[in-house]
Amino acid sequence: MTKDAIARLLNAEGELPLADDLVRAAAAWFDYLTHERAASPASVASYERDLRQFLEFLARDLGHPPCLADLARIDVKVVRRFLAARRRKRIASRSLARTVSALRTFYRWLEATGKVSNRALTQVAMPRLPHTVPKPLTVDKAAALVSDEAQADDWIDARDVAVMLLLYGAGLRISEALSLLRRDAPIPGRDVLRIVGKGGKERLVPVLPVTQRAVERYLAHCPYPLTPETPLFVGAKGGPLSPRIIQLRIARMRDELSLPETATPHALRHSFATHLLAAGADLRQIQELLGHASLSTTQVYTEVDRERILAVYDKAHPRA
């Protein structure tokens, strides 16, 4: 992973020249993230992308390949110019906030390892994030999207339905569903999945019988031999299935099913949580099923289900 990350760091969008000491520091940081913090490959790739964007800007701003000494010298003005440059590319506040967080993590590691000490990033306020509420599908729309009717022997259709049922029926993130191996396949007889989510947090997730049957049907028609260590879900050519394929599948179904523009793979996970809450599930249980580290993250679904909560309040409160 480290060699690939460094190769991308040095050759993204044209060659990015960096001083040797900075290349070695970046390599050591990626190793730290991967092996000591046990960050997921997706998280490491995100950190790599954020660092690359910052170093690309710094190379242009300085007019020479940046080195560790340059990282020690940057001030608040440089950081603000970087953020302003990103905003001119119409980068959303949420993405900017993630980038600042990643760079702060990098600088904390540089300081902890005695390479660089610079607090400029901590003196810059995080971009203000708009308050957003998850946009789930209605029960009927979600059911229509994951319907397994008329799938027949088309293995591509069977695969896509199985993936979407894992998102809606088990609340998985698309990355979690596509990281499952063949040995993990939730077929009849295996009604629980052990999922490793963000931050290496493990959770047990029950799998509905309809999802088990969908996965079994997909495996029965998949034309490629799958060994226990290969990805459970594969693409048309037999390689690991890209999340983009599922995104495009749902996008094609929007017009057919009159779905809103907010219908995405992640909307199925939102729908899972919202529909459980509406059916009376406990917020703590939903937190565990989703793998949220903090209950405050899960509480956002109470805003989606505000009407039901108000109805319960009106019915239950003695002075209502």
Provide structural commentary:
The protein is mostly helical. The chain has 16 helices and two strands. The protein folds into two domains: 2-123, no CATH class; 139-315, hpI Integrase, Chain A. 58% of the residues lie in helices and 3% in strands. Strands 1-2 form a two-stranded antiparallel sheet. Strand 1 (192-196) and strand 2 form a beta hairpin. Helix 1 (2-11) runs parallel beside helix 3, helix 3 crosses helix 6 and helix 8 (155-170) runs antiparallel to helix 10 (209-221). The radius of gyration is 23 Å and the shape is globular. The protein starts with a helix and ends with a helix. The model has no long low-confidence stretch (mean pLDDT 86).
Q: Any descriptors?
A:
mainly alpha; two-stranded antiparallel ribbon; hpI Integrase, Chain A; 2 domains; single chain; 2 strands; 58% helix; 320 residues
Spell out the blueprint of helices and strands:
Blueprint: H1 2-11, H2 20-36, H3 41-62, H4 68-73, H5 76-88, H6 93-112, H7 139-145, H8 155-170, H9 174-178, E1 192-196, E2 202-206, H10 209-221, H11 243-257, H12 265-278, H13 283-290, H14 295-298, H15 300-304, H16 306-316
Antiparallel strand pairs: 1-2
Mean pLDDT: 86
How many domains, in number, for the residues?
Answer: 2
Query: What helical percentage do the residues reach?
Result: 55-70%
* CATH homologous group name of the largest domain: Intergrase catalytic core
* Biggest sheet statistics: 2 strands, antiparallel
Which structural class best describes the helix and strand composition? mainly alpha
Shape: globular
Distance N to C terminus = 60 Å
